[in-house]
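USER:
Try writing one entry.

ASSISTANT:
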Amino acid sequence: MDLFPRFRAKMVKWLDRKGFVLIRKERYLQDIRFDREVEEACLLQPQQERIDSIVFSKDRAMQLHAFLSSFLLQVKGEHRMYILYKASDDRHRQSYRQLERLFVESPFLFVEERDFRSQMIDLVSRSEAKSIALYVDDMVFLRPVDYTALLNLPTQKYIVALSRGKDLEESVVLQRHVELPAFVALPDGLLAFRWDSFDYLSDWTYPLGVSGYIYGKSELAHLLSQCEFKAPNSLEIAMQRYKPFFLYRQGVCYPTIACCCVHANLVQTECVNPTLETFSVEQLLEEWERGASIDLSPFNGATGRDAQVMRYQFTKRDMPNG
């Protein structure tokens, strides 16, 4: 009888109780090399105690308007937000220009996409912020978020995911029920959990993403330089190469989802994700051109469970001059 598997299983459980993880020597050396390169990058660039944000958008000015409006409404301690957007024709391009005029007094910088990878690397590398938050344009903030409190969490230990919470029990992307991990209370009303709580694919075993995730700036810059990608989805896919380096960090979220994806439609062509198909991109563009915007009041304070399948309602928006 081979006793080694039983001995190894007991050893893994004992190490886990002591706060250790058993890994291969090769991966240990890779971890050390990756950490050393990140530390060198930190020493080379000054960092300010702030979180800069980047949101990706393509042909969805109305949904982006809802995201940016909810961001201003709900996020405390916010700083610069880069909007890296792509317009497939002149109508969409005009909608983004109108949007930019609406937020002319906000800390938003609109950058039209030319070469996604080089622009993304440039934005992150040039930032002097300590941390970078990544978002997509079909997200909406549901409740208050304190960037100042999140800055207190060392990114080498924690990965903040604002798209997670105890109300994430049904996955729209995976189209099934997902089991919740165990949670530990942190200061400022935050919760910690383990990304390796389950040995199967789940929203709760996905430590690298672009939907409401916050990373250390230097670490993200180095990671981007090692990945090949051409759009947000291929970026997220390429990031999974480094999943073993991040899986054993703790995830952090609010008790309920703070920033939720509302998958009303699909604009990217790199992979097929399930959507609600409540409104097409063309339908929303037509509503935008009629002077409408998405009504945020149903989302304010809603649970992520309800918000992720909510059908948009519309209201008249303030029109930019010119």
